[in-house]
Protein: Adenine DNA glycosylase
Amino acid sequence: MHKQIADRLTAWQAQQLRELPWRRDPAGARDAYSVWVSEVMAQQTRLSVVEAYFNRWMEQFPTLEALASADQQEVLKLWEGLGYYSRARNLHRAAQIVVSEFGGQLPRTRAELLTLPGIGEYTAGAILSLAFGQHEPVLDGNAKRVISRLWDIETRIDLRSTENRLWRLSRKMVEAASAPGAMNEGLMELGALVCRRRNPLCHGCPVQSNCLAHGRGVEEERPVRAPGQKVPHLEFAAAIIWEDVPGQSRMLISQRPEPGLLGGLWSFPNGAKEADDEDLQACLRRAVRESLGVAVRVGERAETVEHTFTHFRMTLVAFHARITEGEPQAVGAADWCWTRLNEIEKFPCPVPDRKIIAALRKLAKESQAAT
Ligand code: SF4
Structure:
Protein backbone atom coordinates (compact mmCIF):
# COMPACT_ATOMS: atom_id res chain seq x y z
CA MET A 1 0.00 0.00 0.00
CA HIS A 2 2.80 2.48 0.83
CA LYS A 3 4.46 1.87 -2.53
CA GLN A 4 1.21 2.24 -4.47
CA ILE A 5 0.36 5.49 -2.71
CA ALA A 6 3.91 6.80 -3.21
CA ASP A 7 3.80 6.00 -6.95
CA ARG A 8 0.39 7.58 -7.41
CA LEU A 9 1.39 10.75 -5.56
CA THR A 10 4.61 10.99 -7.58
CA ALA A 11 2.77 10.61 -10.90
CA TRP A 12 0.09 13.11 -9.83
CA GLN A 13 2.71 15.60 -8.70
CA ALA A 14 4.38 15.51 -12.11
CA GLN A 15 1.10 16.53 -13.78
CA GLN A 16 -0.22 18.99 -11.24
CA LEU A 17 2.72 20.83 -9.78
CA ARG A 18 2.12 24.56 -9.58
CA GLU A 19 4.70 26.73 -11.33
CA LEU A 20 6.62 28.54 -8.63
CA PRO A 21 9.96 30.34 -8.82
CA TRP A 22 11.77 27.86 -6.54
CA ARG A 23 10.60 24.96 -8.68
CA ARG A 24 12.70 25.75 -11.69
CA ASP A 25 13.59 22.11 -12.25
CA PRO A 26 10.66 19.98 -11.03
CA ALA A 27 12.21 16.78 -12.39
CA GLY A 28 15.56 17.03 -10.70
CA ALA A 29 17.36 18.17 -7.60
CA ARG A 30 16.93 21.82 -6.72
CA ASP A 31 19.13 24.44 -5.24
CA ALA A 32 19.21 23.73 -1.49
CA TYR A 33 19.27 27.41 -0.51
CA SER A 34 16.11 28.13 -2.59
CA VAL A 35 14.34 25.11 -1.11
CA TRP A 36 15.28 26.17 2.39
CA VAL A 37 14.15 29.81 1.98
CA SER A 38 10.89 28.87 0.25
CA GLU A 39 10.03 26.21 2.83
CA VAL A 40 10.63 28.58 5.74
CA MET A 41 8.61 31.35 4.05
CA ALA A 42 5.76 28.95 3.26
CA GLN A 43 5.25 27.92 6.88
CA GLN A 44 2.01 29.57 8.03
CA THR A 45 1.78 31.54 4.78
CA ARG A 46 -0.10 31.00 1.49
CA LEU A 47 2.08 30.20 -1.52
CA SER A 48 0.51 33.03 -3.53
CA VAL A 49 1.88 35.45 -0.91
CA VAL A 50 5.24 33.69 -0.61
CA GLU A 51 6.02 34.03 -4.32
CA ALA A 52 6.50 37.82 -4.29
CA TYR A 53 8.52 37.70 -1.07
CA PHE A 54 10.68 34.90 -2.44
CA ASN A 55 11.48 36.83 -5.64
CA ARG A 56 12.43 39.97 -3.72
CA TRP A 57 14.52 37.91 -1.29
CA MET A 58 16.46 36.21 -4.07
CA GLU A 59 17.12 39.52 -5.78
CA GLN A 60 18.63 40.91 -2.60
CA PHE A 61 20.22 37.74 -1.19
CA PRO A 62 20.85 35.51 -4.23
CA THR A 63 23.19 33.20 -2.31
CA LEU A 64 23.55 31.84 1.17
CA GLU A 65 26.75 33.88 1.56
CA ALA A 66 24.90 37.08 0.60
CA LEU A 67 22.32 36.36 3.30
CA ALA A 68 25.00 35.55 5.88
CA SER A 69 26.77 38.86 5.33
CA ALA A 70 23.58 40.98 5.33
CA ASP A 71 22.58 43.28 8.15
CA GLN A 72 19.76 41.87 10.32
CA GLN A 73 17.66 45.01 9.78
CA GLU A 74 17.83 44.49 6.01
CA VAL A 75 16.66 40.90 6.50
CA LEU A 76 13.76 41.93 8.74
CA LYS A 77 12.76 44.71 6.35
CA LEU A 78 12.45 42.20 3.49
CA TRP A 79 10.39 39.93 5.73
CA GLU A 80 8.09 42.78 6.79
CA GLY A 81 4.45 41.67 6.56
CA LEU A 82 5.17 37.93 6.45
CA GLY A 83 4.88 37.65 10.23
CA TYR A 84 6.57 35.15 12.57
CA TYR A 85 9.74 37.20 12.42
CA SER A 86 11.79 34.66 14.34
CA ARG A 87 11.81 32.72 11.06
CA ALA A 88 13.75 35.56 9.38
CA ARG A 89 16.14 35.99 12.30
CA ASN A 90 16.79 32.23 12.38
CA LEU A 91 17.38 32.04 8.62
CA HIS A 92 19.92 34.81 8.95
CA ARG A 93 21.71 33.26 11.95
CA ALA A 94 21.65 29.80 10.38
CA ALA A 95 23.17 31.16 7.13
CA GLN A 96 26.02 32.65 9.17
CA ILE A 97 26.62 29.28 10.88
CA VAL A 98 26.53 27.42 7.56
CA VAL A 99 29.19 29.79 6.20
CA SER A 100 31.40 29.63 9.29
CA GLU A 101 31.02 25.94 10.19
CA PHE A 102 29.91 24.07 7.06
CA GLY A 103 31.95 25.81 4.37
CA GLY A 104 28.90 27.60 2.95
CA GLN A 105 27.08 24.37 2.01
CA LEU A 106 23.90 23.27 3.76
CA PRO A 107 24.69 19.97 5.52
CA ARG A 108 23.25 16.78 4.06
CA THR A 109 22.21 14.92 7.20
CA ARG A 110 19.11 15.40 9.31
CA ALA A 111 21.16 15.48 12.52
CA GLU A 112 23.39 18.30 11.27
CA LEU A 113 20.51 20.28 9.77
CA LEU A 114 18.66 20.08 13.08
CA THR A 115 21.54 21.89 14.81
CA LEU A 116 20.79 25.04 12.77
CA PRO A 117 18.46 27.69 14.23
CA GLY A 118 14.93 27.46 12.86
CA ILE A 119 15.40 24.11 11.11
CA GLY A 120 13.05 21.54 12.60
CA GLU A 121 12.14 18.04 11.50
CA TYR A 122 9.86 19.27 8.74
CA THR A 123 12.29 21.73 7.13
CA ALA A 124 15.13 19.21 7.40
CA GLY A 125 13.03 16.59 5.60
CA ALA A 126 12.07 19.08 2.89
CA ILE A 127 15.68 20.13 2.24
CA LEU A 128 16.99 16.55 2.25
CA SER A 129 14.31 15.17 -0.06
CA LEU A 130 13.65 18.11 -2.40
CA ALA A 131 17.20 19.38 -2.75
CA PHE A 132 19.33 16.28 -2.15
CA GLY A 133 16.94 13.53 -3.32
CA GLN A 134 17.17 11.62 -0.03
CA HIS A 135 14.46 9.25 1.20
CA GLU A 136 13.60 11.49 4.16
CA PRO A 137 10.02 12.22 5.26
CA VAL A 138 8.16 15.52 5.64
CA LEU A 139 5.15 16.30 7.75
CA ASP A 140 3.54 19.71 7.42
CA GLY A 141 -0.12 20.47 8.15
CA ASN A 142 -1.20 19.36 4.67
CA ALA A 143 0.70 16.07 4.85
CA LYS A 144 -0.76 15.39 8.31
CA ARG A 145 -4.29 15.81 6.99
CA VAL A 146 -3.71 13.54 3.97
CA ILE A 147 -2.06 10.78 5.99
CA SER A 148 -4.70 10.97 8.75
CA ARG A 149 -7.35 10.41 6.11
CA LEU A 150 -5.51 7.76 4.11
CA TRP A 151 -5.08 5.62 7.25
CA ASP A 152 -8.26 6.88 8.96
CA ILE A 153 -6.41 7.79 12.13
CA GLU A 154 -8.88 8.12 14.96
CA THR A 155 -6.62 9.51 17.67
CA ARG A 156 -6.30 13.23 18.34
CA ILE A 157 -3.85 15.05 16.07
CA ASP A 158 -2.35 17.07 18.93
CA LEU A 159 -1.10 13.95 20.76
CA ARG A 160 2.60 13.11 20.59
CA SER A 161 1.75 9.44 19.87
CA THR A 162 -0.35 10.46 16.83
CA GLU A 163 2.41 12.73 15.58
CA ASN A 164 4.92 9.86 15.90
CA ARG A 165 2.61 7.56 13.97
CA LEU A 166 2.19 10.14 11.20
CA TRP A 167 5.98 10.50 10.93
CA ARG A 168 6.36 6.71 10.69
CA LEU A 169 3.77 6.51 7.91
CA SER A 170 5.33 9.43 6.05
CA ARG A 171 8.73 7.71 6.33
CA LYS A 172 7.34 4.43 4.99
CA MET A 173 5.88 6.20 1.99
CA VAL A 174 9.03 8.13 1.14
CA GLU A 175 11.18 5.03 1.57
CA ALA A 176 8.97 3.27 -0.98
CA ALA A 177 9.15 6.20 -3.43
CA SER A 178 11.26 6.17 -6.57
CA ALA A 179 11.57 9.99 -6.49
CA PRO A 180 11.44 11.03 -2.82
CA GLY A 181 11.37 14.79 -3.38
CA ALA A 182 8.55 14.56 -5.92
CA MET A 183 6.59 12.19 -3.69
CA ASN A 184 6.90 14.47 -0.65
CA GLU A 185 5.90 17.46 -2.69
CA GLY A 186 2.95 15.55 -4.14
CA LEU A 187 1.82 14.61 -0.63
CA MET A 188 1.87 18.22 0.58
CA GLU A 189 0.43 19.58 -2.66
CA LEU A 190 -2.44 17.10 -2.53
CA GLY A 191 -3.30 18.42 0.93
CA ALA A 192 -3.19 22.02 -0.29
CA LEU A 193 -5.20 21.59 -3.49
CA VAL A 194 -7.35 18.45 -3.25
CA CYS A 195 -7.50 16.98 0.23
CA ARG A 196 -8.63 20.29 1.67
CA ARG A 197 -9.70 20.75 5.24
CA ARG A 198 -13.28 21.45 4.21
CA ASN A 199 -14.91 19.87 1.14
CA PRO A 200 -12.03 17.66 -0.02
CA LEU A 201 -12.19 16.98 -3.76
CA CYS A 202 -12.16 13.19 -3.42
CA HIS A 203 -13.58 12.63 -6.93
CA GLY A 204 -10.35 13.96 -8.45
CA CYS A 205 -7.98 12.41 -5.93
CA PRO A 206 -5.26 10.07 -7.24
CA VAL A 207 -5.28 7.99 -4.04
CA GLN A 208 -9.02 7.80 -3.52
CA SER A 209 -9.06 4.00 -3.77
CA ASN A 210 -6.40 3.81 -1.03
CA CYS A 211 -8.18 6.18 1.33
CA LEU A 212 -9.73 4.48 4.35
CA ALA A 213 -11.45 7.61 5.67
CA HIS A 214 -13.07 8.25 2.29
CA GLY A 215 -14.17 4.61 2.05
CA ARG A 216 -15.85 4.95 5.45
CA GLY A 217 -17.32 8.38 4.65
CA VAL A 218 -15.51 10.09 7.53
CA GLU A 219 -12.91 12.15 5.65
CA GLU A 220 -14.16 15.47 6.98
CA GLU A 221 -13.88 14.14 10.54
CA ARG A 222 -10.15 13.51 10.07
CA PRO A 223 -7.81 14.55 11.45
CA VAL A 224 -9.42 14.45 14.87
CA ARG A 225 -8.84 17.81 16.49
CA ALA A 226 -8.53 18.82 20.13
CA PRO A 227 -11.58 20.65 21.49
CA GLY A 228 -11.32 24.30 20.40
CA GLN A 229 -9.60 26.76 22.70
CA LYS A 230 -10.63 30.37 22.86
CA VAL A 231 -8.00 32.80 21.57
CA PRO A 232 -7.45 35.44 24.27
CA HIS A 233 -8.15 39.07 23.45
CA LEU A 234 -5.69 41.66 24.78
CA GLU A 235 -5.95 45.44 24.73
CA PHE A 236 -2.80 47.44 23.97
CA ALA A 237 -2.05 51.14 23.96
CA ALA A 238 0.68 52.67 21.76
CA ALA A 239 2.27 56.12 21.99
CA ILE A 240 3.02 58.27 18.96
CA ILE A 241 5.48 60.47 20.84
CA TRP A 242 6.07 63.68 18.90
CA GLU A 243 9.22 65.67 19.37
CA ASP A 244 7.43 68.92 18.67
CA VAL A 245 4.19 69.54 16.78
CA PRO A 246 2.02 66.42 16.20
CA GLY A 247 2.00 65.52 12.52
CA GLN A 248 4.75 67.96 11.55
CA SER A 249 7.80 66.87 13.47
CA ARG A 250 9.76 63.77 14.39
CA MET A 251 8.27 60.89 16.31
CA LEU A 252 9.87 58.30 18.51
CA ILE A 253 10.03 54.62 17.64
CA SER A 254 11.63 51.88 19.71
CA GLN A 255 13.19 48.56 18.78
CA ARG A 256 11.72 45.46 20.35
CA PRO A 257 14.13 43.30 22.35
CA GLU A 258 15.22 39.80 21.36
CA PRO A 259 14.21 37.15 22.06
CA GLY A 260 10.54 37.94 22.17
CA LEU A 261 7.51 38.59 20.02
CA LEU A 262 8.56 40.68 16.99
CA GLY A 263 12.11 40.99 18.36
CA GLY A 264 14.35 43.31 16.31
CA LEU A 265 11.41 45.16 14.73
CA TRP A 266 10.61 48.82 15.33
CA SER A 267 7.30 49.97 16.72
CA PHE A 268 5.56 52.78 18.50
CA PRO A 269 6.23 52.24 22.22
CA ASN A 270 3.33 50.19 23.52
CA GLY A 271 2.12 47.86 26.22
CA ALA A 272 -0.82 45.67 27.14
CA LYS A 273 -3.31 46.44 29.86
CA GLU A 274 -2.30 44.53 32.95
CA ALA A 275 -5.68 44.64 34.67
CA ASP A 276 -9.25 45.12 33.52
CA ASP A 277 -9.56 48.31 35.55
CA GLU A 278 -6.32 49.86 34.20
CA ASP A 279 -7.33 52.54 31.69
CA LEU A 280 -5.46 52.72 28.39
CA GLN A 281 -3.84 56.07 29.17
CA ALA A 282 -2.44 54.78 32.47
CA CYS A 283 -1.32 51.59 30.72
CA LEU A 284 0.51 53.68 28.14
CA ARG A 285 2.27 55.90 30.68
CA ARG A 286 3.46 52.76 32.48
CA ALA A 287 4.58 51.01 29.28
CA VAL A 288 6.56 54.03 28.05
CA ARG A 289 8.23 54.48 31.45
CA GLU A 290 9.19 50.78 31.50
CA SER A 291 10.61 50.73 27.98
CA LEU A 292 12.15 54.22 27.66
CA GLY A 293 12.39 55.62 31.21
CA VAL A 294 10.41 58.80 30.45
CA ALA A 295 7.10 60.27 31.56
CA VAL A 296 4.61 61.21 28.84
CA ARG A 297 1.44 63.24 28.60
CA VAL A 298 -1.10 61.20 26.66
CA GLY A 299 -3.12 63.21 24.18
CA GLU A 300 -5.82 62.41 21.65
CA ARG A 301 -6.58 58.99 20.28
CA ALA A 302 -5.06 58.68 16.76
CA GLU A 303 -6.05 55.23 15.51
CA THR A 304 -7.43 51.87 16.61
CA VAL A 305 -6.05 48.71 15.04
CA GLU A 306 -7.25 45.11 15.29
CA HIS A 307 -4.76 42.32 14.66
CA THR A 308 -4.58 38.58 15.26
CA PHE A 309 -1.36 36.82 16.24
CA THR A 310 -1.07 33.05 16.66
CA HIS A 311 -1.89 33.00 20.36
CA PHE A 312 -3.94 36.12 20.88
CA ARG A 313 -6.07 38.79 19.30
CA MET A 314 -5.08 42.40 19.91
CA THR A 315 -6.88 45.71 19.88
CA LEU A 316 -4.23 48.42 19.75
CA VAL A 317 -5.22 52.01 20.43
CA ALA A 318 -2.62 54.59 19.40
CA PHE A 319 -2.51 57.98 21.14
CA HIS A 320 -0.56 61.12 20.36
CA ALA A 321 1.84 61.82 23.21
CA ARG A 322 4.63 64.19 24.36
CA ILE A 323 7.50 63.64 26.76
CA THR A 324 7.06 65.66 29.95
CA GLU A 325 10.00 64.38 31.97
CA GLY A 326 13.30 62.64 31.31
CA GLU A 327 15.48 61.76 28.32
CA PRO A 328 14.63 58.54 26.44
CA GLN A 329 16.89 55.58 27.20
CA ALA A 330 16.68 51.96 26.06
CA VAL A 331 15.52 50.59 29.41
CA GLY A 332 13.19 47.77 28.34
CA ALA A 333 13.57 48.47 24.60
CA ALA A 334 16.61 47.32 22.61
CA ASP A 335 17.04 50.78 21.06
CA TRP A 336 15.10 53.91 20.13
CA CYS A 337 15.32 56.81 17.68
CA TRP A 338 13.49 59.81 16.31
CA THR A 339 12.18 59.51 12.77
CA ARG A 340 9.85 61.26 10.37
CA LEU A 341 6.79 59.98 8.61
CA ASN A 342 8.64 60.05 5.28
CA GLU A 343 11.67 58.20 6.70
CA ILE A 344 9.97 55.46 8.68
CA GLU A 345 9.78 53.17 5.62
CA LYS A 346 13.37 52.11 6.09
CA PHE A 347 12.60 50.48 9.46
CA PRO A 348 11.11 46.97 9.62
CA CYS A 349 7.81 47.40 11.48
CA PRO A 350 5.08 44.95 12.53
CA VAL A 351 1.74 45.04 10.68
CA PRO A 352 -0.22 46.91 13.43
CA ASP A 353 2.36 49.72 13.38
CA ARG A 354 2.22 49.90 9.61
CA LYS A 355 -1.53 50.43 9.90
CA ILE A 356 -0.92 53.32 12.32
CA ILE A 357 1.64 54.80 9.91
CA ALA A 358 -0.87 54.55 7.04
CA ALA A 359 -3.45 56.39 9.16
CA LEU A 360 -0.93 59.12 10.03
CA ARG A 361 -0.04 59.54 6.36
CA LYS A 362 -3.69 59.88 5.44
CA LEU A 363 -4.18 62.52 8.12
CA ALA A 364 -1.08 64.41 6.97
CA LYS A 365 -2.37 64.39 3.38
CA GLU A 366 -5.80 65.61 4.43
CA SER A 367 -4.37 68.45 6.51
CA GLN A 368 -2.07 69.45 3.62
CA ALA A 369 -5.06 69.55 1.25
CA ALA A 370 -7.00 71.68 3.72
CA THR A 371 -4.27 74.33 3.99
FE1 SF4 B 1 -8.21 13.21 0.86
FE2 SF4 B 1 -10.47 12.44 -0.32
FE3 SF4 B 1 -8.11 11.79 -1.37
FE4 SF4 B 1 -8.90 10.67 0.88
S1 SF4 B 1 -9.87 10.48 -1.11
S2 SF4 B 1 -6.87 11.50 0.45
S3 SF4 B 1 -10.00 12.35 1.85
S4 SF4 B 1 -8.98 13.86 -1.14
In short: The radius of gyration is 24 Å. Residues 146, 149-150, 194-195, 200, 202, 205, 207-208, 211, 213-214, 219 surround iron/sulfur cluster (CB under 6 Å). The mean pLDDT is 90. Residues 233-370 form a domain with the Nucleoside Triphosphate Pyrophosphohydrolase fold (CATH 3.90.79.10).
